[in-house]
TrEMBL record, chain A:
InterPro entries in alphabetical order: DUF112_TM
Domain of life: Bacteria
Keyword Transmembrane helix: yes
Protein name per its UniProtKB record: Tripartite tricarboxylate transporter permease
Domain (DUF112): residue spans on this chain: 22-441
Keyword Membrane: yes
The organism of origin for this protein: Paracoccus albicereus
Transmembrane segments: 12-32, 44-67, 108-131, 143-162, 168-187, 257-283, 319-338, 358-378, 387-407, 413-430, 437-460, 466-487
Alphabetically ordered keywords of this record: Membrane, Transmembrane, Transmembrane helix
Automatic annotation (TrEMBL), chain B:
Protein name: Tripartite tricarboxylate transporter substrate binding protein
UniProt signal peptide: 1-28
Keyword flag Acyltransferase: no
Sorted UniProt keywords: Signal
Source organism, top-level taxon: Bacteria
Automatic annotation (TrEMBL), chain C:
Transmembrane segments: 12-33, 39-59, 90-123, 129-149
UniProt KW Membrane keyword: yes
Keyword set, alphabetical order: Membrane, Transmembrane, Transmembrane helix
Species assigned in the record: Paracoccus albicereus
Name assigned to this protein: Tripartite tricarboxylate transporter TctB family protein
Superkingdom of this protein's organism: Bacteria
């Protein structure tokens, strides 16, 4: 489609005209994203009877706005109470929650919202212009390359385990082991399930996430009266002026927001990848390129921005295969496809030929829904940061009550609430004894995904392990992965050496 | 049910009204069967072909069976999880299974599942039948099935399939046996990723139920169909049958979607089963339904109101095939 | 970690996770023993990795113990002494909520769980805790069940509302 000012303004104007359906969707999406277990695709499925009844354009606008808002919402509990609403927000806890503990909740929320909104907006606009090119990505990234991309995410275990590498690696390997539970990808034989049918699909992600983060956090937080460390308590509630100032100053990180959101966009385009992989990789890469990598994990603004802009970049990315090829790249896109099919709208290349307004309209709606979220940021930053002054005796029971039902939602099994409690115990033990819960979760999330891609690649090659080094793109990624892992220790040793030399030269002559 | 709300104000209100509608009607209507919502178990993932077809049917079905439908998805262990949970649900005719007879009967035969078709579970009414097909992405070098088979005689050709226990996988294994071609089956677990692998060229070709390549339109090229004749020549570029193209004599490989109930429902509530069968058949003949199927890109020729007897005999034939290819499909070599 | 001066570092609790992980790894390998190679491959690699890491960790602990740097105490595992009882009961309430949910339904069990937890954790006056619990449970009901139509387990409250509507 050739863009001129008229057609562009037409697209965006039309998207804005659907505000009445997008605003309620944004509200529902923000809340659903913030409650673990709902997330976008569960909520969209729950609301499918509604979306099927609407006309197709409104239905898409509703789903897309809800989808985008839920990714923004997922960061809120991650920052405030250390509970990611979705797997994609798990990396946000690494620096978001330490900021809250330092009394910087207002700042952390502002960073999260600005990164989400700007990142989501930029990646949707880029998609609008680069859709044909983006849709080709899937033709070059196959199972082999996916294995390496996911190893980037796995490498994050090493960086968050910096304090005690052995414990971090044990936690990560334990997560991978748990992630290997369930029916195998080729023959569907159940492995390590204790005979529970409910575990044949593997460890259900949402209950595991809720247990590791929410339940264990609730148990630990009761050890003190307040979330924020003593002395760091904000004296008064955040004012409008303060909220606005933090929001505006968050824009100074624009460059990092843009590149991490584009990274998210590209990962989102890949079939089978998703927000969690993108946010882990973005966090890991941000740390790699950061001038202050040692600050990551202690409440560093860049550590909040990376995962949040990446997981919002993913939202547009996952729609690309659906729009360009006609095959949904993820579960949310698959549900959207049902709605398109139900209304008899063609999808894939035919969509652009037969209904270009609708095809490009979806992406425009995405960009516009991020713009519409801007007014929501100010009150959310101002009032939500107040959660941190609520006493833990109220907070902990509420967290348990509402996240446990969240564990129930995705599959409707009471069993899953039991799993959440079991993972809650694992999480409690891990927290109290210096094993990082995020390392366990990364293993649980990435383990089965890596295994699947690895087995597919192996089977395609006729079980030749060298297939892992058989593609140019794959090999470039391998080199980058090795550099990412090897450079930071070398650099920090060199820096330490330089510092020592400098100290010597400073003190030398006088001594 | 498939109303379109046009005015802005009404649709805004509908956001809440429809959400209320999800729970309200359950208690608002008369007490005749079914007096609650009907739950449908789908043993594959949301957004897959079964989900698509089930949604299309229930939208029209609710005209004849005045109820709301609820869906649950259990894609685990090639459908085993769905079947086992379905057997645990209340056997009173309000819980139905929307099955895909071919792959699921093979799964029940090959995996260690304590469910006997006929004794525990009965397919009461078919809704559609489609043959399996071999197809490639639009960019593929293969123009015909002969070319693919020739290539497969020189090197193992990779074929993406939804899962190993599947009629399409059996078809490829049988074709390989008959022609001496080597087909390396790669199970991607679900129709969408399977198709994606063929379209992006990760694998050489794909074997799936025919509706899949048809819904992908110009992105897919059908090379051969496992049937006695091509039921939809127009939508498949006049693709030949596998037997025509390869000179083989393979049995037709089809799969039917069908509704199933627990066997005990047939004994305890025969009249309910009758209501179900009757209203499903009315739905299948409804012009609205035919239009909905075609709108989803699936040929109306696939609609098949086959009765219980037809469904059960298809299940029996499929079970026989599964036993024949057990070794190749389970890795017990 | 290498705190040579002062008291011995209690590492008893630190062993819980590696030991459980190792046990699961062994169970996993046992459960895939007869399976085709492709189903075993990744599990066996992972189990090998995990067991070697745990073995290295055990060597570290045993060395520390023999050098007198570590002790097998539980350390701060259960948190501050004064709130142990209330936190313990809170955990039991979580288990009770799991058991009670199928009978009480979402709204009532949420209310009872919240109210009981507030009471145990020391929210006073009691009436205030009960009121907050009621508001919380009703808000949850409104958003999740009424608006979104989520299929949470139904109980007396949901059925009552159902008949009224």
């Amino acid at each position: 489609m050739e863009y001129d000012l008229a057609s562009l303004s037409g697209l965006f104007g039309h998207a804005f005209s659907m505000w009445w359906i997008m605003l309620p969707a944004i509200v529902v999406g923000l809340i659903a994203g913030a409650v673990p277990g709902f997330a976008a695709h569960n909520t969209i499925i729950i609301l499918l009877p509604l979306t099927l009844a609407l006309n197709v354009e409104y239905a898409l606008a509703f789903m897309v706005a809800l989808y985008c808002a839920s990714h923004l919402g997922g960061g809120i509990p991650a920052i405030l109470v250390n509970i990611p609403g979705t797997g994609g927000a798990a990396a946000t806890t690494l620096d978001g929650y330490p900021m809250t503990r330092k009394g910087e909740a207002v700042k952390a929320l502002s960073l999260c919202f600005v990164a989400s909104v700007l990142g989501g907006f930029v990646s949707s606009v880029v998609t609008l212009f680069a859709l044909p090119a983006l849709s080709r990505v899937g033709y070059y990234i196959h199972s082999v390359e996916m294995v390496v991309v996911m190893l980037f995410g796995l490498a994050l275990i090493a960086s968050i385990a910096a304090k005690d590498m052995l414990k971090g690696l044990i936690a990560g390997a334990f997560g991978l082991m748990l992630g290997a539970m369930g029916a195998d990808h080729i023959y569907a034989t159940p492995r390590g399930t204790f005979g529970f049918l409910e575990l044949f699909d593997g460890v259900p992600l949402v209950p595991a996430l809720i247990g590791l983060f929410a339940i264990s956090e609730a148990l630990v937080m009761l050890e003190s009266d307040a979330l924020v460390e003593e002395g760091d308590q904000p004296k008064t509630a955040a004012t409008w002026r303060e909220s606005a100032r933090e929001i505006f100053s968050a824009f100074s990180h624009w460059w990092q927001i843009i590149w991490t959101s584009l990274l998210g966009l590209v990962i989102g385009v890949l079939p089978g990848a998703g927000a969690s992989i993108a946010s882990f990789v973005a966090y890991q890469q941000s740390q790699f390129f950061s001038k202050t990598p040692e600050k990551f994990g202690t409440g560093h603004p860049q550590g909040v921005i990376a995962p949040e802009s990446a997981n919002n970049g993913v939202t547009t990315g996952t729609l690309v295969p659906l729009l360009a090829i006609g095959v949904p790249g993820g579960s949310t896109a698959a549900v959207m496809m049902i709605v398109l099919q139900f209304h008899g709208v063609p999808f894939g290349p035919r969509l652009f030929v037969e209904e270009p307004q609708l095809a490009y309209g979806v992406i425009a709606v995405m960009a516009v829904s991020y713009v519409m979220m801007i007014p929501f940021m100010f009150p959310m930053v101002r009032y939500m940061s107040r959660i941190t002054v609520i006493s833990t005796v109220y907070l902990a029971p509420f967290i348990v009550a509402f996240t446990l039902v969240g564990a129930f939602v995705p599959r409707g099994f009471l069993f899953d609430m039991g799993i959440a409690v079991a993972f809650g115990i694992i999480g409690y033990v891990a927290r109290k004894t210096g094993y990082h819960v995020a390392a366990i979760l990364i293993g649980v999330i990435l383990g089965p995904l890596i295994e699947r891609s690895f087995l597919l690649a192996m089977r395609i090659s006729g079980n030749d392990p060298m297939v892992m080094f058989s593609s140019t793109i794959g090999n470039i990624l391998w080199v980058m992965l090795i550099l990412t892992l090897a450079l930071p220790p070398i650099m920090s040793r060199r820096r330490a050496k330089l510092e020592r030399l400098k100290d010597k030269s400073l003190t030398g002559p006088d001594a | 049910m498939s109303k379109t709300f046009d005015t802005a104000a009404f649709a805004a209100a509908a956001t809440f009204a429809a959400a209320m509608g999800v729970i309200a009607p359950a208690h608002a209507q008369d007490a005749d069967y079914p007096d609650t919502n009907v739950s449908i178990t789908i043993p594959t993932g949301e957004g897959g072909g079964a989900d698509r077809d089930a949604r299309a049917i229930t939208q029209v079905w609710s005209k004849y069976l005045d109820r709301n439908f609820e869906f649950s998805y259990y894609p685990g262990a090639a459908g085993q999880v769905g079947y086992e949970f379905f057997m645990k649900s209340e056997a009173d005719g309000t819980n139905l299974m929307f099955s895909n007879i071919g792959p699921e009967v093979i799964m029940l035969e090959l995996q260690d599942v304590p469910i006997e078709i006929g004794e525990d579970l009965v397919y009461i009414q078919k809704t559609s039948t489609e043959p399996m097909a071999i197809w490639v992405g639009a960019n593929s070098e293969f123009e015909t099935l002969e070319q693919l088979i020739e290539e497969a005689k020189t090197r193992p050709v990779t074929i993406s399939v939804s899962r190993l226990p599947h009629p399409a996988s059996i078809g490829m294994l049988a074709l390989g046996e008959a022609t001496g071609a080597q087909f390396n089956l790669i199970p991607y677990g679900g129709g969408n990723p399977t198709a994606m692998a063929a379209i992006t060229g990760e694998v050489d070709a794909s074997a799936l139920p025919l509706a899949n390549p048809i819904t992908f339109g110009p992105e897919a090229r059908v090379l051969g169909i496992f049937a006695d004749e091509n039921p939809v020549p127009e939508q498949t570029g006049n693709a030949p049958t596998v037997n025509e193209a390869a000179g083989t004599d393979l049995p037709p490989l089809t799969s039917s979607r069908a509704f199933a109930v627990q066997a005990s429902v047939l004994e305890e509530y025969p009249e309910r089963v009758e209501v179900l069968k009757q209203t499903i058949r009315e739905t299948l003949a409804d012009p609205d339904y035919i239009a909905a199927v075609e709108a989803a890109g699936v040929p109306a020729a696939f609609i098949d109101p086959g009765d219980q007897e037809a469904a059960m005999s298809e299940a029996a034939e499929t079970a026989e095939l599964a036993t024949k290819y057990r070794e190749l499909l389970t890795g017990d070599e | 970690m290498n705190d040579r001066s002062g008291a011995r570092k209690p590492v008893g609790a630190d062993l819980i996770l590696p030991v459980c992980a190792a046990l699961y790894a062994v169970y996993y390998v046992w459960s895939v023993w007869d399976f085709p190679a492709e189903a075993q491959l990744s599990g066996i690699i992972l189990a090998g990795l995990l067991l070697s890491l745990v073995a290295i960790y055990m060597i570290r602990i045993i060395r520390g113990l023999s050098l007198g740097r570590y002790s097998l105490g539980m350390g701060n595992f259960f948190g501050p002494q004064e709130s142990r009882k209330s936190r313990g009961i809170f955990f039991l309430l979580i288990l009770a909520a799991l058991v009670g949910l199928p009978w009480l339904g979402f709204t009532l069990s949420t209310f009872v769980f919240l109210a009981a937890s507030f009471f145990v954790l020391g929210v006073r006056p009691i009436g205030r805790g009960i009121m907050i619990a009621a508001i919380g449970a009703l808000t949850g009901w409104f958003f999740f069940i009424f608006l979104l139509g989520t299929h949470f387990p139904e109980g007396p409250f949901e059925r009552l509302i159902g008949t009224v509507l």
